[in-house]
Amino acid sequence: MELFILFSSLITLAAFFSYLNVKFFRLPSGISLMLMGVVAALGVIIAGYFSAGFTEMVREKILLIDFSEFLLGILLSFLLFAGSLHVSITDLRESSKSIISFATVGTLISTAAVGFALFYILPLFGQEAPLIYCLLFGALISPTDPIAVMGILKKANLSKKIETNIVGESLFNDGIGVVIFATLLKIAVAGTDSFGPKDITLLFLQEAAGGILAGIVIGYIGYRLMKSIDHFQTEILISLAMVMGGYSLCHYLHVSGPLAMVVAGIMTGNRGRRLAMSDMTRDYLEKFWEVTDEVLNAVLFMLIGLEVVIVAFDLDYFFIGMIMVFVIILARFFSLYFPSLVFRFNKSLGNKSLLIMTWGGLRGGISIALSLSLPPSPFKNIIVSITFVIVIFSIIVQGVTVEKVIKKLRD
């Protein structure tokens, strides 16, 4: 019952703040909910100074939700599937070279650059962490969050090519980033002696290639089932089964669930929507997943803001986080520029497009969830705290200004 009350409170707060935003502020929904969640969290902390135990009581309630498990194990499957339904496979094919390069080579470059930078910055503040943990931080913070990106760039009026690159890259580099994180975590736990280059390669291939293959199978089975009937209620249930059953199967098979959901969503949103659905089914399915996406996003961003209550912040962590914000932005640009130069599509995109992709590459809940999923260690708290600083800056500052940056670069 306590969990039900907690979720009821989250939904009520999200509805109230969404109303205020639509009525008065008119910010992108993700930004407004994150901002108001942070304000609510600060209100709880301040109230704690006047009412002993109040903040602790709220912290205990929030801790009833394992945020990492909630996002990575439940929400992520729904949000990635819903987001990828609207991605055109034709547009993806046209930009496939750049999207694949950015999602793989770019994520690896950013992971290494951010990890090494943190390793050398920490001692300046009297802190330290092994290189492998710094690289883990690089892996969890490098992928752009498709949930935050798609929610905030909807009103940015980007060109089709740039929008496809940002959304396509964020959908795929999310899966790749989780695979890199899982690989590095295994090295950190098992050590390089028992987990060598061959094991790393096999794990990476199993997670990434296995996830893509699972997505194709899930998408194809869903397509065939939907094509054989014309009953929108059942077809919506089939899409739910693809997400929930498919994601659970990926977890059991130890392959990348996020990549599987992206592939299955793209197949359903293109071939399935075009060839397997009547107009009525198409309309109901689109509206169902649009509402599902909005509700889950509202809960997610509100929860991210309120999670501030459970983080043990230190002033040094804040300053390290702010320095890392600029490091990550620079690493982001280099991780885009280098592949575009090497694979020779820099002329078709142009430096202005890369700058837009750099500033529009937002970090979100996935980074927080991965940081919270780290096993207990002396280095976990600093990584979690720095991650919160970066994510809040990314969504609020970059999210608010991305339209202005795009307009300025276009002029």
What key phrases describe this protein's structure?
mainly alpha; 411 residues; Na+/H+ antiporter like fold; single chain; globular
Description:
The chain is mainly alpha-helical and 411 residues long. The protein has a single domain (67-410), classed as Na+/H+ antiporter like fold (Up-down Bundle), CATH 1.20.1530.20. The chain has helices spanning 2-25, 29-50, 54-62, 67-84, 89-94, 96-121, 131-141, 146-153, 160-190, 197-227, 232-253, 257-275, 279-306, 315-342, 346-349, 351-359, 365-372, 380-410. The longest helix has 31 residues, at 160-190. It is globular, with a radius of gyration of 21 Å. The protein starts with a helix and ends with a helix.
Can you give me a brief rundown of this structure?
82% of the residues lie in helices and 0% in strands. It has helices spanning 2-25, 29-50, 54-62, 67-84, 89-94, 96-121, 131-141, 146-153, 160-190, 197-227, 232-253, 257-275, 279-306, 315-342, 346-349, 351-359, 365-372, 380-410.
Write the layout of secondary structure elements.
Elements: H1 2-25, H2 29-50, H3 54-62, H4 67-84, H5 89-94, H6 96-121, H7 131-141, H8 146-153, H9 160-190, H10 197-227, H11 232-253, H12 257-275, H13 279-306, H14 315-342, H15 346-349, H16 351-359, H17 365-372, H18 380-410
- CATH hierarchy, class: Mainly Alpha
Helix segment tally: 18
Q: Kindly state the mean pLDDT as a whole number? A: 87
What does the oligomeric state look like here? Answer: single chain
Structural class: mainly alpha
Count structural domains: 1
Q: Give the SSE order as H and E letters.
A: HHHHHHHHHHHHHHHHHH
| Rg result | 21 Å
Largest sheet features? none
Helix content: over 70%
- Gross morphology: globular
How much of the sequence is in beta strands?
under 5%
Between the first and last Cα atoms, what is the distance in angstroms? 55 Å
Stretches where pLDDT is under 50 for at least 5 consecutive residues are none
* CATH architecture label: Up-down Bundle
Number of strands: 0
Q: What name is given to the CATH topology?
A: Na+/H+ antiporter like fold
